[in-house]
């Protein structure tokens, strides 16, 4: 006689979702935080060479980080596509999808090298580098550009593993890469006497080492499940097509951040200094919220691939609750810890006076940011890239005129971060409408 299993209670369902979210989000947060440590280690080592070298590193690193952030769609689009195949129970097709993304990363990386090597002096000049720093910036940029294919492979392969519901391996690789980068930098900069070139070569070697680790894991999985490793033109085109809307989304977001910095610069030295501090803090909080979004991408894609529309909606609702709670916690931490961390960034009373009211606006906006990040991840996991691109363009169109009017109307940094809160509120409205409409719920192995 067959025993019928009792349906899970709502509390049991929430606990299951919580376990899934924590299992994916915590390692993802560790990997996200480990990435900026590369730059911090390089800065600490190169800083002892001299101010011109450090200035050159700052300019080159800004260019490199911008280039890589533009291609973050390699991770996002791959996560969603692979997770759907996993949900459908076809691991071979999931890995094949991921390999197409890795080939796309290699092609894009080769294109970036072809542009950067001859164009490095012009790019550095556009950033307004001084005569003493320019040569160091060009040297670092040219050498480091050789590692861009590896950096993009790391992005795509990270997306593969996230789609396979594995965020632990990226954490381990990130930690190993950070350690190797530090050792190589010290050895090549000082031991071999290569100066800033040694720092660039150390980073390139570490990046290729990380890419090799990822490729080993992906290739081993592909062979186990019979997935071809050869480049497939149709598959690469499909990966590019899926990533194109997310590229538009990313470029729109970068434009918003650049406009905000440009407006802060027009407000005065104290304002732009305070803005930089807040932006650094805002980015750190974004890592925490993005970790939940990454869990959302992987989990939502898997549910939709398994034709479980109700499960996808349930986990979406639970993740929104996570976003609200996380935002409240982060906002509270900002308010309570202000007396501790503000003096660490600046001792200038004018900067502190400018910083504090704007910081309060940022703290109050964190619950909004929490929901925005979560819904962003949910829609990415659903493969809803075209809508995300359109929504971010709308946000840019609303934000730009408001922000650019602030200096004319006599507003200060608090007004600018009020405009940033408006930007996040517009994003919340567009993403919330989409989530409520249910149009993102498209089941099946492919969207």
What this model shows, in words?
This is DNA-damage-inducible protein F. It contains 14 helices and no strands. It has helices at residues 10-46, 51-70, 73-87, 91-126, 131-145, 148-163, 168-191, 196-224, 233-267, 269-305, 309-345, 349-381, 385-405, 413-437.
Largest sheet, strands/sense/barrel: none
Based on secondary structure, the structural category is mainly alpha
Outline? globular
| Total tally of structural domains | 2
Please estimate the helix content.
Answer: over 70%
Total of helices:
14
Could you state the order of secondary-structure elements as H and E? HHHHHHHHHHHHHH
The whole-angstrom Rg is 22 Å
* Mean pLDDT level: 89
Low-confidence stretches: 1-5
Number of E-type strands: 0
N-C termini distance = 40 Å
Roughly what fraction of the amino acids lie in strands? Answer: under 5%
Main location: membrane
Family: Belongs to the multi antimicrobial extrusion (MATE) (TC 2.A.66.1) family.
Organism: Streptomyces laurentii
Membrane topology: Multi-pass membrane protein
What is the compact description of this entry?
Helices cover 85% and strands 0% of the residues.
Describe the protein's topology.
Layout: H1 10-46, H2 51-70, H3 73-87, H4 91-126, H5 131-145, H6 148-163, H7 168-191, H8 196-224, H9 233-267, H10 269-305, H11 309-345, H12 349-381, H13 385-405, H14 413-437
Helix pairs in contact: 1-2, 1-7, 1-8, 1-10, 2-5, 3-4, 3-6, 3-9, 3-10, 4-5, 4-6, 4-8, 4-9, 5-8, 6-8, 7-8, 9-10, 9-13, 10-11, 10-12, 11-12, 12-14, 13-14
């Amino acid at each position: 006689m067959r025993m019928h299993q009792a349906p899970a209670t709502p509390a049991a369902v929430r606990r299951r979702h919580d376990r899934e979210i924590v299992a994916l989000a915590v390692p993802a947060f560790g990997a996200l935080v480990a990435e900026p440590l590369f730059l911090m280690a390089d800065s600490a080592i190169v800083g002892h060479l001299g101010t011109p070298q450090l200035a050159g590193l700052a300019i080159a690193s800004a260019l490199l980080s911008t280039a890589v952030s533009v291609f973050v769609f390699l991770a996002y689009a791959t996560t969603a596509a692979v997770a759907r195949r996993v949900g459908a129970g076809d691991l071979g097709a999931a890995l094949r999808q991921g390999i197409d993304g890795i080939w796309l990363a290699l092609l894009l990386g080769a294109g970036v090298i072809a542009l950067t090597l001859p164009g490095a002096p012009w790019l550095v000049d556009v950033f307004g580098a001084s005569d003493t720093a320019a040569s160091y910036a060009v040297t670092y940029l040219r050498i480091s550009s050789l590692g861009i294919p590896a950096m993009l492979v790391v992005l795509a392969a990270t997306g593969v593993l996230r789609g396979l519901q594995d965020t632990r391996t990226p954490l381990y690789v990130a930690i190993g890469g950070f350690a190797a980068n530090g050792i190589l930098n010290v050895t090549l900069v000082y031991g071999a006497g290569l100066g800033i070139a040694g720092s660039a070569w150390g980073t390139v070697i570490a990046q290729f080492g990380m890419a090799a680790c990822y490729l080993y894991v992906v290739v081993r999985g592909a062979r186990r499940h019979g997935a071809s490793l050869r480049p497939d033109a149709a598959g690469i085109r499909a990966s590019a097509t899926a990533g194109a809307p997310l590229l538009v989304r990313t470029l729109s977001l970068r434009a918003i951040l650049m406009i905000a910095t440009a407006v802060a610069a027009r407000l005065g030295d104290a304002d732009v200094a305070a803005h930089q501090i807040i932006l650094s803090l805002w980015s750190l909080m974004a890592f925490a919220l993005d970790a939940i979004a990454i869990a959302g991408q992987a989990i939502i894609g898997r549910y939709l691939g398994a034709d479980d529309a109700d499960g996808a909606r349930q986990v979406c609702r639970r993740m929104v609750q996570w976003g609200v709670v996380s935002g409240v916690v982060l906002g509270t931490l900002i308010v309570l810890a202000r007396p501790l961390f503000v003096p660490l960034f600046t001792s200038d009373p004018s900067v502190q006076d400018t910083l504090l009211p704007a910081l309060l606006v940022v703290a109050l906006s964190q619950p909004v940011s929490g929901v925005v990040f979560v819904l962003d991840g949910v829609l990415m996991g659903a493969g809803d890239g075209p809508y995300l691109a359109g929504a971010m363009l709308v946000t840019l169109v609303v934000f730009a005129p408001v922000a650019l009017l602030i200096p004319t109307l006599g507003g200060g940094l608090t007004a600018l971060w009020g405009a940033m809160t408006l930007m996040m509120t517009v994003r919340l409205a567009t993403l919330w409408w989409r989530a409520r409409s249910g149009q993102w719920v498209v089941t099946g192995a492919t969207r």
